[in-house]
Write a structure and sequence with these properties.
- The chain is flat and about 60 Å long.
- It starts with a strand and ends with a strand.
- The strands form 3 sheets. The chain has a 5-stranded parallel β-sheet, with helices on both faces. It has a 4-stranded parallel β-sheet with strand order 3-2-4-5, sandwiched between helices.
- It has helices at 13-28, 44-52, 78-86, 97-111, 125-132, 166-179, 191-206, 219-230, 246-249, 265-282, and strands at residues 2-5, 34-36, 55-57, 68-71, 90-93, 115-119, 138-141, 156-160, 184-185, 209-213, 235-238, 254-259, 285-288.
- It folds into 3 domains: 2-11 and 191-288, Cobalt-precorrin-4 Transmethylase, domain 1 (3-Layer(aba) Sandwich), CATH 3.40.1010.20; 13-95, Rossmann fold (3-Layer(aba) Sandwich); 98-185, 4-hydroxy-3-methylbut-2-enyl diphosphate reductase, catalytic domain (Cobalt-precorrin-4 Transmethylase, domain 1, 3-Layer(aba) Sandwich).
- Helix 7 (191-206) packs parallel to helix 8 (219-230).
- The longest helix is centred in the C-terminal third of the chain and has 18 residues, at 265-282.
- The chain is 42% helix and 18% strand.
- The protein binds FE3-S4 cluster (F3S).
- Residues 12-15, 73, 96, 98-99, 162-163, 190, 192-193, 261 line the site of FE3-S4 cluster (F3S).
Length: 289
C-alpha cells in the first residue's frame, strides 16, 4: 500500500497564531492565571498541551478575575467582548485576522441597513460571534430549507463562515441570488481552508481511501470528512494514531491522509509513524503530497 500525505495538513495560520499567543501569555503571566474564552483549539491533544502550561478554559464570567483572558481565533461578538472586559482581566485578542475581516464586513453593511446572512453553522462559536456584529439584523443558514427564513424584502449582505464548504456556499448563494438579485455576496471562505478542500478533492482522485486526522469537535476537520465522503471515498476519521485500525486499511492500494486546521503536526506525525510501522509489516510506501 502507498500513503500520500496532503501538504495543506495541520495548523492554519490563525490557529497557530492563537496557540503561540496563549503560550507566550502563559510565560508572561506570573500568577499563571491564563484563561481562554472556550477551548482555544478543537483538538484534545493540543488542549492537553495548553493545560500542561497552566492555561485553563474560562468556566464563568465573574468580576475581579486576576490574570489574562484570551479571545480565540474564532472571535467574539461585541457584547461578549464587553462582558469579558467587565471581569477586570487583561484581554488578549487572538481573533484570526481573516475572521476580523468578516466581522468588519458584517458591521459595515449592518450599519448601512443590510440584513446579514451568514452561510454557516449557527451553533459554532465563530458564527455566534459574527452574528453579534450584525446588530440583531442577521441570520445563519445551513440548508436550502433555511432559505424560507429570509425576510421577504430586504437588502441582503451574504457572507460565509470561514471554514464553510465551498460547494455548499456556492449552491446557497446562487439560490439567494435567484430570489434576491440585488443581494451582495461576499465569499469569505478562508483561502487556507479553500486550498485544503481543493487539495482533498484532488487527493480523492488519486487514492482509494482517505484518513482524516483531527478533533471530533473541529468544524473544518468534520468538513474534510464530509468532502471525502461526498467524493465517494471510504473515509476514516481518527483523532489519534490509537484509532487507526490496520485491518480496515490493508486492502486499499493507496490511501490519502489529511489533517484539519486544528490538528497539531505532532499528532499527524504520530499517525504517519504508526502507518510507517505498519508499512514494514504490510509492505506500504509513504510519501508527501
Ligand atoms: Fe483563520 Fe482561516 Fe484558520 S480564518 S483560523 S486562517 S481557517
Amino acid at each position: 500500500m502507498k500513503v500520500r500525505i496532503a501538504k495543506t495538513s495541520g495548523f492554519c495560520f490563525g490557529v497557530k497564531r492563537a496557540f503561540e499567543i496563549a503560550l507566550r501569555e502563559a510565560k508572561m503571566t506570573e500568577s499563571g492565571n491564563v484563561f481562554t474564552d472556550g477551548p482555544l483549539i478543537h483538538n484534545p491533544q493540543a488542549l492537553e498541551r495548553l493545560q500542561n502550561q497552566g492555561i485553563k478554559i474560562l468556566e464563568e464570567i465573574k468580576r475581579n478575575i486576576k490574570g489574562t483572558i484570551i479571545i480565540r481565533s474564532h472571535g467574539v461578538s461585541p457584547e461578549r467582548r464587553k462582558e469579558l472586559e467587565k471581569t477586570g482581566a487583561k484581554i488578549v485578542d487572538a481573533t484570526c485576522p481573516k475572521v476580523k475581516i468578516v466581522q468588519s464586513v458584517i458591521s459595515q453593511y449592518a450599519q448601512k441597513g443590510f440584513y446579514v446572512v451568514i452561510i454557516g453553522d449557527k451553533s459554532h462559536a465563530e458564527v455566534r460571534g459574527l452574528l453579534g456584529h450584525a446588530n440583531e439584523k442577521g441570520i445563519a443558514i445551513q440548508t436550502e430549507y433555511d432559505l424560507k427564513k429570509l425576510p421577504s424584502s430586504a437588502k441582503l449582505c451574504v457572507v460565509a463562515q470561514t471554514t464553510q464548504n465551498k460547494d455548499k456556499f456556492t449552491l446557497l448563494s446562487e439560490k439567494i441570488k435567484e430570489r434576491f438579485p440585488e443581494a451582495l455576496i461576499f465569499d469569505t471562505i478562508c483561502e487556507t481552508n479553500r486550498n485544503r478542500q481543493e487539495e482533498l478533492k484532488d487527493l480523492c482522485n488519486l487514492v482509494d481511501a482517505i484518513i482524516v486526522v483531527g478533533g471530533k469537535e473541529s468544524a473544518n476537520t468534520r468538513r474534510s470528512v464530509e468532502i471525502a465522503k461526498s467524493e465517494g471515498k471510504p473515509t476514516f476519521f481518527v483523532e489519534s494514531e490509537n484509532e487507526l485500525v490496520p485491518d480496515k486499511l490493508k486492502d486499499f492500494k493507496e490511501v490519502g491522509i489529511i489533517g484539519g486546521a486544528s490538528t497539531p503536526d505532532w499528532v499527524l506525525s504520530r499517525v504517519v509513524s504508526k502507518l510507517e510501522k505498519l508499512k514494514n509489516h504490510h509492505d506500504w510506501k509513504i510519501e508527501a503530497g
